[in-house]
């Protein structure tokens, strides 16, 4: 099994391994699929958060940021916008 190293200061520290088969339990990122190099994700995000983060660009580009509102109203409007985007992707337009 070949290790993948990253230079940290003057030393090289292992950050991943080449593998064949299935990696053991945990969250992994594919660093280079050509060589089957994997590295563990140090701070994995729940899948629900990853699914929500895909809408970030749509919210940033299409949200009315200039409308005056309280923090509570801002969060409510952002969550409503997110819900509408998810519904649209799921074919549930209102």
Q: How would you sum up this structure, described in words?
A:
By secondary structure, this protein is of the alpha+beta class. The protein has helices at 47-53, 56-62, 71-89; strands spanning 3-8, 11-18, 28-32, 37-40. Helix content is 35%, strand content 24%. It is built from three helices and four strands. It is elongated, with a radius of gyration of 20 Å. A four-stranded antiparallel β-sheet has the order 1-2-4-3, with no helix packed on it. It folds into two domains: 3-40, no CATH class; 47-89, no CATH class.
Keyword list:
94 residues; alpha+beta; 2 domains; 35% helix
Please sum up the structure shown.
By secondary structure, the protein is an alpha+beta fold. 35% of the residues lie in helices and 24% in strands.
Topology:
Elements: E1 3-8, E2 11-18, E3 28-32, E4 37-40, H1 47-53, H2 56-62, H3 71-89
What is the chain-wise order of helices and strands?
EEEEHHH
Structural class: alpha+beta
Uncertain runs with pLDDT below 50, 5 residues or more? none
The mean pLDDT is: 77
Strand order, sheet with most strands: 1-2-4-3
What is the distance, rounded to the nearest whole angstrom, between the alpha carbons of the first and last residues? 53 Å
Give the total of beta strands.
4
Q: How many domains make up the coordinates? A: 2
- In percent, how much strand structure appears in the residues? 15-25%
Shape: elongated
Instruction: Compute the CA-based radius of gyration.
Output: 20 Å
Level of helix content?
25-40%
Count every helix, treating DSSP H or I runs of 4 or more residues as helices.
Answer: 3
What composes the largest sheet?
4 strands, antiparallel
């Amino acid at each position: 099994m070949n290790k993948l190293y990253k230079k940290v200061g003057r030393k090289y520290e292992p950050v991943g391994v080449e593998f064949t088969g299935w990696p053991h339990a945990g969250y992994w990122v594919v660093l280079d699929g050509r060589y089957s190099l994997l590295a563990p994700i140090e701070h994995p995000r729940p899948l629900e958060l990853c699914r929500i983060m895909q809408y970030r660009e749509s919210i940033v580009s299409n949200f009315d940021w200039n409308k005056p509102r309280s923090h509570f109203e801002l969060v409510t409007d952002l969550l409503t916008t997110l819900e509408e985007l998810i519904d649209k992707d799921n074919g549930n337009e209102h």
